Amino acid sequence: TTDLKAAFMEAIPQEMERLKMLKKEHGAAVLGQVTVEQAVGGMRGIPALLWETSLLDAEEGIRFRGYSIPELQERLPGAKPGGEPLPEGMLWLLLTGQIPTAEQAHGVTGMLRERSAVPAHVQQVLAALPSGTHPMTQLCTAVLALQSGSKFAAAYDQGVHKSKYWEPVYEDSMDLIAKLPGIAAAIYRNTYKGGARIEPDPSLDWAANLAHQMGARLAPRSDELLCVKIASVGSALSDPYLSYAAGMAGLAGPLHGLANQETLRWVHGVQQELGESPTKEQLRDYVWATLKGGKVVPGFGHAVLRKTDPRYTCLRGFAQRHMPEYPLFRLVSILYEVVPDILMQTGKVKNPYPNVDAHSGVLLQYYGITEERFYTVLFGVSRALGVLSQGIWSRTLGLPIERPKSLTIDAMLQHVASN
Ligand code: FAM
After folding, report:
1. Domain containing 332: what range?
2. Residue nearest to atom 18 of ligand 1 (CA)
3. ipTM exceeds 0.85, yes or no
4. In what side-by-side order are the strands of the sheet with 67-68?
5. pTM of the model
């Protein structure tokens, strides 16, 4: 079949069976223990959530449905033969667990295209926001405005049976994914191009249409770049719009997705102060000055990973192929040689290597998307595929509301004393 929903439905029974077996046969097995340090330290590393679509390994980086990023670059169908993978193929993989054929990926393109129209009221809400509203705030606002059309919220109101939750959640998720390029482009045009809209081109795929509707006279490979770049709220039965908007509010924090914009600002700061080709010695001083100023070096470090982020490596490979002489790329490459040593010398940074945000901005600059405050929106659009696929699975499997327990300092001290 080239119909994603049909393929997804085929995958449901086996997955339900596996979860039932896991609970029945291993329900009492211990996955880990929680230390006081973890409880006061942001819950790092506590294995406490079922998440089927991806797995992050500290050493190796992320795998989607068991495949690493280089493996997916090789195996997923491309926008052009041999080109970067289509996000539509990724969505198929995340939902069904199977690598799609080119026809199946194109089937998803067609299905999304039919749902892609952004309602007029959402455009009006965006247009009404004061100029200068951060693009991430605009994204959250637009998604919440779309929520009035939620099929899950409507079905829940009408008393839908639990076992049927998955279907309106699936429909909402596809509607939202389909509309995100139009929304992101509207935010871009409103914020930077005086508001005039560009209509979608029905011959283009999902990511290419985003590039097209942004219309920032982009270089030929920019749509491919958008391909490369590419939640616990849902457990309370908040519909996909509410859940995704909540996730986006989190992504908008500077230690998370906003690092995208912060990195570029920081690298521009380096260029301004030290010129196009600074020496390593100058860069070392600059990095130390950032640290001594009580700031982080954006684009380096990771909460879980302990190696260079494979997404960084993937973007670096792209830059090596398409813009090896670009000054900003050369600068980022030298920083790769300089920064980790210094972060190691602080003695506290657990991962001194670059993450995806250290690189993505440079590529966007090269392709003419120079407005760094917009970058996290692109990050958020690509994230939608992952989080919404998992959201569909979570509701399909009937996972309950998440309820991690919080403790006061007194409660922890009492617990320690009594053990
Ligand atoms: N520059 C300076 N200090 C850093 C640092 C960096 N790049 N990375 C970590 N540290 C510090 C950190 O602030 C902490 O200091 P204190 O003990 O004084 O609070 C110490 O090193 C130990 O931190 P950690 O255990 O190595 O990292 P965390 O798990 O606490 O935090 C990050 C992880 C990503 C928030 C952190 O590395 C950071 O702030 N990096 C810069 C911002 C960034 O690039 N974020 C994007 C992450 C990206 F992958 C994404 O999610 N979008």
Report:
1. 268-366
2. 348
3. yes
4. 54-57, 61-64, 67-68
5. 0.88
